[in-house]
Amino acid sequence: MIIRYLLLGIAFGLMTVLGWFLAPFLYPFRKLIRDNKENFFWYFLNDTKIGLDAGDFGRFNHNIIGFYLQCAIRNPHWNLKLKLAPKVGLKENVKGDLEWRRYNLKGYQYATYTITGIKYFRFSYSAGWWYCQFGSSDNRFIYKLKINV
Predict the structure, then answer these.
(1) Local confidence band at 93 (pLDDT 50, 70, 90 cut-offs)
(2) How confident is the model at residue 105 (pLDDT cuts 50, 70, 90)?
(3) For 1-149, where are the alpha helices, taking DSSP H only?
(4) CA distance 126 to 146
(5) Where exactly are the structural domains of the chain?
(6) Phi, psi (degrees; rounded to nearest 5) at 46
(7) Facing residues of 109 across strands?
(8) CA-CA distance, 40 to 80, in Å (whole number)?
(9) Which residue(s) pair with 144 in the sheet?
(10) Is the model's pLDDT at 103 over the cut of 60?
(11) The whole model's pTM is what?
């Protein structure tokens, strides 16, 4: 469970760094890449159709700079994240509190649960001025570290 999560984190990190360098070269070919889904370069595009952050440009200008900001900085390897997202379904064998929220709380929370035979976990810790959260939510893997000053 944790080893799979760490390996995914390393893969996401490598894809992020690759996205920084590949995104400018993908811009002129984005429509061709999207037409041939499931190729390596497709993972760096944003195929989400709805919402403020949908598509190649999200809330940014519709030019190469906006494309770079959306697909290399804000949402690198977006389609890979969606493809490898945790399974959605009925949570079974829940151990711990999945509803713990960081707002105005101090302490930690650890929970494990199973969906269709795959085990997931979530860990959160808050000291008031800093907060970290790792594991998975209902639709994504989480890697967060925030410092409030």
Answers:
(1) confident
(2) low
(3) 2-26, 30-35, 64-68, 78-83
(4) 10
(5) 2-83, 92-147
(6) -115, 105
(7) 124
(8) 9
(9) 133
(10) no
(11) 0.77
